[in-house]
Amino acid sequence: MSTTTGSDLGVAEVIEIDCVSAQKKGGRPVDDVLKHFDRGPYDKSKNCYATCKGCRRHWKRARLPEIRLHLAKECTAIAPEVSAFYKALLAKDATASSSEVVTAKRACSGLGSQGSKRGGLL
User: Fold this and answer.
1) Could you tell me if residue 8 is inside a domain?
2) Which residues contact residue 62 at a Cβ distance below 8 angstroms, ignoring those fewer than 6 apart?
3) Per-residue confidence of the chain (122 residues) as pLDDT tens digits?
4) Which domain holds residue 85?
5) pTM beyond 0.90, yes or no
6) Cα dihedral: 74, 76, 80, 81 (round 10)
7) Is residue 107, in this structure, part of any structural domain at all?
8) Is residue 82 situated within a structural domain?
9) What's the structural domain count of the chain?
10) Does residue 53 fall inside a structural domain?
């Protein structure tokens, strides 16, 4: 049978508190691009500001497409691997969006002889 001292209990309590505080909150996961930025508090419209950790450029509102573009093409203070990663990501997004536009045009061209969305029911 082992005995525990008061100091052992104090350590156990600290560890338990650390485990509880390390649990993640619910909600949408944070995008990986934000690890390259310092983020500020949220305002009334639930937006936050961001500052690039490399070049210290500041945005009043951190929009993910804008800051990804910054890392891919504008920021010279970050590692070349990071810039190359976001360039490839932007190229992938561009090819995906261009194929979506072609698909949408094909879907709209199937309207037939009516030629409008109203459908000639007037």
Assistant:
1) no
2) 34, 37, 39, 47, 48, 49, 50
3) 445 555 555 554 444 444 444 555 678 888 899 999 999 888 888 788 999 999 999 999 888 899 999 999 999 999 999 999 999 999 998 888 776 655 555 555 555 555 545 554 54
4) 34-95
5) no
6) -50
7) no
8) yes
9) 1
10) yes
